[in-house]
Amino acid sequence: MATLPNQQEKLSLDTFVRGLWEENPVFVMLLGMCPVLAVTNSTLNAIAMGLATTFVLVASSTLVSLLRNFIPKQVRIASYIIIIATFVTVVDYAIQAISLDLYNALGAFIQLIVANCVILGRAEAYASKQRPHTTVINSLGMGAGFTLALLSLGTVRELLGSGTLLGYAVMPANFEPWVVMLLPPGGFFVLGAWLLLFAAMKQRRERRMLERQEVSHAG
User: Fold this and answer.
1) What tens digit of pLDDT does each residue of 73-101 get?
2) Contact by Cβ (8 Å): 91, 56
3) pLDDT in tens, 116-135
4) CA nearest 91: which of 105, 82, 103?
5) Which helix (H) or strand (E) holds 209?
6) 174-210: b or e for each residue (b if 16 or more CB lie within 10 Å)?
7) Which phi and psi angles does 169 have, rounded to 5°?
8) 20, 148 in Cβ contact below 8 A?
9) What is the pTM of this model?
10) How far is Cα 149 from Cα 153, in angstroms, rounded to an integer?
């Protein structure tokens, strides 16, 4: 797991980008696997869950950062959970008001955002130690990374499992859908493929950096 800062971090582009690549919640830190596998059988579900989680992550982390000097250490985890649960309730009612079909498709996984390790982990390891504006940018990056991971799985699974994208047919008429992609095993297959690709890209990047260091030392 990536090392999180214990001191005040200076705001920079890396504060946001880190959540997309170096500390991606799914492809690097392997957090929040339950919704990643459960709701990514369609692109729309993936986008909705990603945006809902991002909202809760940003809102709760910001409030934890604002109250970091007032929350007693003895009850900090309980306080974080109460804060997170409050924003999850807001999201739950909002999705229910916007679309009942989407609400039913996401099911209990909306409420289970409360138990998402990504959110509680950022509250404890980052937001409780950083200023609000830095926390907001970092939370947006982590939320974007989580949404990107959900979207990566949801798009592949919907394309191969239904031959559609956001409900619109995009595959040839003679395409035979891979129904397994819409089932739990399909989620594991696609996740494994993305993890393999992400690991290969990371190794290639590290190898290039090592080669550049060797060249600079040799020079």
Assistant:
1) 999 999 999 999 999 999 999 999 998 98
2) yes
3) 889 999 999 899 999 999 99
4) 103
5) helix 184-218
6) eeeebeebbeeebbebbbeebeeebeeeeeeeeeeee
7) -70, 125
8) yes
9) 0.87
10) 6
- Chain center to CA of 170: 27
Residues with Cβ within 8 Å of 35's Cβ and at least 6 positions away in sequence, in order, are: 49, 53, 109, 112, 113, 116, 150
Torsion of CA 123, 125, 126, 130, to 10 degrees: 100
In the chain, what is the greatest distance between 2 CA atoms, to the nearest angstrom? Answer: 64
3-state DSSP call for residue 32? Answer: coil
Say how many residues make up the chain.
219
CA dihedral 126, 130, 131, 134 (to 10 degrees): -60
150: tokens are 């959900």
Q: Rounded to whole angstroms, how far apart are CA atoms 4 and 138?
A: 11
DSSP state of 76: H
**Residues paired with residue 196 on neighbouring β-strands, in sequence order:** none
